[in-house]
């Protein structure tokens, strides 16, 4: 299987057979870095990292030249620079990134209304109903790649297959700037050559469990009794892997995704051991979660927190609320209750707050009383003020006047998206 640095890349020849296909997975190549190179062509062909070189910044994206030194996304920038001392670090421009993402997604929509965005830079497309307009799935992939490049200057990699799972694998193998088509009748043979870890959901632990039993490839999985898979991975994962190894994936392209959670987290420039500062940060993050929930008309039934200590030990805690909410005050109270129960023997490196088990706001249901009515009105006013004057123009008094440890400001300034 291909590697993340572009070596081992596999692409289809022109006019490759696309019989039985209909799903495209489109993935922009090193998107943040590609946007930076688009705006500064002198960076082309050089090892480039997007992220802050100061403090505890992490790599948002890396050029393929940098990846060949072992640089990967989410790696501390300091570590990336040790691996690749000649790398050029560039701060990501989120306004430009969002602008180009919207443009790319608009191109997808021109080919089919059945588009499932997975993130800011990738999506599944179901093009089975677009044949009369644009041609076969393989032809559509060629046209789409050409349009993306001509209209944005960016490259993308596309996998074409009969299922989402195989299309995703194909796009990964074809990176960067490639197209790989897996015809329906060829699916089984294509999968059999892959490592077991290539299958969706087979992470490091599951991979180790399989390899401990001598199961290294998809072909090995095909020869393994179902009972052995169930014992190694558990019945649910064993069932999934058994089906995926055979090219069976019933998932359709979902144009309206129901988000599972909404969260924010911050990494400090230096470790914090002042509980008052940490409590203030939890309140701040809870308000941001509440704002995003209200923006999308969601409520969270469960609130969870994440705490990472100085030695990188990370814990999560969660609680289910009596009633779902999108009120930042209520989310903050739940987060602080969870935080107070955490045993803290070391300073804290990172904190996070997340709303989970989301549901649409039940605004049409009558209630005899609403304990959060006043806070709901206040936060609605804050939302209106933010829309008019920008976020931070108006905020709670409890969140101003207190320095976040005199320079221990968070460094994760990336654009968040629901999971």
Round the Cα radius of gyration to an integer and report it.
Answer: 24 Å
The CATH H-level superfamily of the largest domain is: Reverse transcriptase/Diguanylate cyclase domain
CATH topology of the largest domain: Alpha-Beta Plaits
Count every helix, treating DSSP H or I runs of 4 or more residues as helices.
15
- Record the strand order, biggest sheet: 5-6-1-7-8
Number of self-contained structural domains = 3
Parts with pLDDT < 50 across at least 5 consecutive residues: 364-370, 400-419
Strand content: 15-25%
**What's the mean pLDDT score?**
86
Number of strand elements: 12
- Provide the CATH top-level class of the largest domain: Alpha Beta
What's the CATH architecture name of the largest domain? 2-Layer Sandwich
How would you sum up the major sheet? Answer: 5 strands, mixed
Please report the distance between the alpha carbons of the first and last residues: 27 Å
- In N-to-C order, the SSE pattern is EHEEHHEHEEHHEHEHHHHHEHEEHEH
